[in-house]
Specification:
326 residues; mainly alpha; 9 helices
Length: 326
Amino acid sequence: VAIRYRGSRLGVAWALLAVGLLFNLFAEVSWSVQELAFQEDVPFPSVSDIGYVGAYAPTLLGLLLMPQAPFSALSRTKLGLDALIVTCALAILSWFLIVQSILNSTGISLQAEVLSVFYPFADLAMVFAAFVLVARAGRTRFALAFGLLAAGYFATAFSDSVYAYLTEAGYETGSYADLGWATGYSLMSLAALAALHPMAAFEPRTRQAEPTPAFWPSLAPYAAVLPLALLLLDKTRGGGADTALTAGFLAVLALIVLRQVLANYENIRLNNELSDLAANLDVRVKEKTMQLLRRRSQDGEGGGSTVTRPNGADEPVGGLRSPPRK
């Protein structure tokens, strides 16, 4: 796909994704060699983590470089707020469900602790980029490729977070966490095939062709805050809510309120623009009508035979002219 669209921003984005997948390839092969060929438990961290860590930067940059962002500044701000709300809610959940248990565990090295904390937050950045990619894809012929690509990175990010949680309890190849990686890589391959399809020819979007926003991205922030509310309720029943959890929940609610304020402002602005457009159109119609009436009045004063009748009524049926009157 990068070769097909070389020389464009789209080609650069896919090239960066390919570089990230090459890092993942190195990590997966080195892991398999250590576990299958050498028949030994893979330590954590290991040489495979070089590939896993190195894949994040080019992949994140490639997802954000996909040239499908909306043009208006207000649309970009709303989209950024939606992605920020989802990411913040997932970050709070990840902190209380995964990261805290890792930090409280004993008997692991500093490198293992740093990587165990790095992976969940790096995956949150991937979720942020994938959400932005899907939300701004619109109804273009590239939407299928972008949707598959984002779903693939969602799946791999989920398995990475589960793996970080299982490192404390003990991870073994063949667990349910592997389904996310297998599914994610398959969806990425399908996304590339969809992008290579002739019907998916990329068409740069103009400002006039900016699509109508989809409905589902506006529901994502509210869906993201739901598990956060359930976690807060569970902590409250267990003997008092954590201060950090309460503060995080209130921060996410504040972002949702800010997003709603921006949506109301956009609706008011669009209604005002529509009213101005209707008023200008009414004025122009009246001006054109007066000009037409004035012209007909002048033609009538110059001679009745020169007055143009509506709908071609000055011409007789069949194209025959009446004989001149005496």
